[in-house]
Q: What sequence folds into this?
């Protein structure tokens, strides 16, 4: 697939690539209803978008006349800025609604707020909300496309897609790779979406965390959702052996107040990814992190900025992934 130059009225080839027929999504809520072919289509489209980002003028008219609206009810830097920039690079108009300054604080319901954005002509609404399931509620009641930018502890599909894409770009595939996710699995929407995506793509997923930071009923969840076996290994040194990619999760300090961990010091001793532990993985092993990074807690600074780290590249890839998704949801229908 090739994105055409902006000096013509056609923004993508008049005849869409045959693979585009695979796309069946009006919304991006999580990865549990994606197929391997659809994820690979996202990768293929993201490659085209990365070519756009290499140009001197990083803009194409793909979404000219379309409007993207964002509603973030939780703080965000990378995700919000990435969606806004992705839309602008594709020539869409952007409406940013700050929940703190909106009628939400006056008691307006989430659906009424979103209906206001719909009435303003939004074609896509990107929503982040503290309540799990909020984007699903929005998709049920609105007639526009909804993208989940993180809902409670539940899901963060675009982050998972950029993580998968980063691994695929470096290692050429995900099938058969060993990926270790370390830390607060229970409260991490990033981990939940990555478990889905990596399993769909054939990776072996190892979860390494204290028992208090694992989801309740994890084995039942895996069985009921028909996921491939996911290994839980509480000892980090064992989990890291032979790993192809490693993702420490941000340890949310607020969890300290809920008695889920004895102390940060103990967590660092047992679960911090440092250079010595990284050496247990394969020599080509990638180090990822969904951000923001707590340096010196879940990851040592020399690892976060070391040769095997792709953390900054994840941010760049996130822009390409979100451009690709906007194209597939709206631009690809032209």
A:
């Amino acid at each position: 697939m090739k994105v055409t130059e902006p000096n013509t009225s056609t923004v993508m080839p008049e005849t869409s690539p045959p693979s585009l027929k695979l796309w069946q999504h009006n919304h991006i809520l999580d990865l549990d209803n994606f197929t391997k072919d659809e994820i690979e289509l996202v990768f293929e489209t993201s490659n085209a978008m990365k070519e756009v980002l290499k140009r001197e003028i990083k803009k194409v008219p793909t979404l000219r006349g379309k409007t993207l609206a964002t509603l973030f009810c939780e703080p965000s830097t990378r995700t919000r800025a990435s969606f806004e920039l992705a839309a602008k690079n594709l020539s869409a108009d952007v409406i940013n609604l700050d929940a703190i300054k909106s009628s939400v604080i006056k008691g307006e319901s989430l659906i009424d707020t979103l209906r206001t954005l719909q009435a303003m002509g939004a074609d896509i609404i990107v929503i982040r909300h503290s309540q799990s399931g909020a984007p699903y509620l929005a998709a049920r009641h609105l007639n526009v496309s909804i993208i989940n930018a993180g809902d409670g502890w539940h899901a963060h599909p675009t982050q998972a897609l950029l993580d998968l894409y980063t691994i695929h770009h470096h290692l050429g595939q995900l099938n058969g790779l060993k990926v270790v996710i370390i830390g607060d699995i229970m409260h991490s929407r990033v981990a939940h979406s990555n478990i889905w995506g990596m399993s769909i793509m054939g990776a072996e997923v190892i979860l390494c965390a204290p028992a208090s930071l694992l989801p309740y009923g994890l084995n039942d969840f895996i069985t009921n959702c028909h996921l491939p076996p996911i290994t839980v290994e509480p000892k980090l040194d064992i989990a890291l052996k032979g790993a192809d990619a490693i993702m420490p999760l941000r340890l949310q300090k607020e969890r300290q107040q809920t008695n889920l961990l004895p102390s940060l010091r103990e967590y660092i001793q047992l679960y911090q990814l440092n250079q010595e532990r990284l050496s247990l993985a394969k020599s080509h092993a990638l180090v990822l992190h969904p951000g923001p990074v707590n340096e010196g807690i879940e990851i040592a600074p020399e690892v976060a900025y070391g040769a095997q780290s792709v953390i900054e590249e994840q941010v760049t890839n996130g822009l390409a992934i979100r451009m690709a998704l906007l194209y597939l949801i709206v631009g690809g229908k032209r």
Notes: The radius of gyration is 20 Å.
